TrEMBL record:
GO terms for biological process: response to oxidative stress. Pfam families: OsmC. It comes from Mucilaginibacter mali. Belongs to the OsmC/Ohr family. It comes from the Bacteria. This is Ohr family peroxiredoxin.
Length: 137
């Protein structure tokens, strides 16, 4: 495997802390979401993961669309990341990726969405580790 790029972000303070990238592009105060006893209006790990996965996923969808001759330039991926309790001391994530590709039907969208999910690096990283549903909308 050839390493092409490495992102570096330093986190301090956990869910009620701060993250900063070494290039200064990301510099965010982090808070638990209100549903977990925190405050609204701040970044949290699930929001960042959803945004990162959605962006990466659309890159994979672009490759699939190019391969199959389908314009996916206006496609959207709405990523839902859920923080779930497994037991009193154990938690796990789950995800749904809602994919919309204007101009094609739901069946075609699902086929392309599934192919992108097979190739997306974030999807590969989570495969077999969390429950993921890819849904054409």
């Amino acid at each position: 495997m050839e390493k092409l790029y490495t992102a570096v972000v330093t986190a301090k303070g956990g869910r009620d802390g701060h993250i900063k990238s070494n290039d200064g592009i990301i510099d965010l105060e982090m808070k638990k979401p209100k549903a977990l006893g925190g405050k609204d209006g701040f970044a949290n790990p699930e929001l960042l993961f959803a945004g990162a996965w959605g962006s990466c996923y659309l890159g994979a969808l672009g490759s699939v669309g190019k391969r199959d001759g389908v314009d996916v330039s206006e496609a959207t991926a709405e990523v839902h990341i859920s923080f779930n309790r497994e037991s009193e001391t154990s938690y796990a994530l789950s995800a749904e990726i809602h994919v919309h590709i204007p101009g094609i039907n739901e069946e075609q969208t699902q086929k392309l969405a599934d192919a992108a999910h097979r190739g997306c690096p974030y999807s590969k990283a989570t495969r077999g580790n969390i429950d993921v549903k890819v849904i054409a909308v």
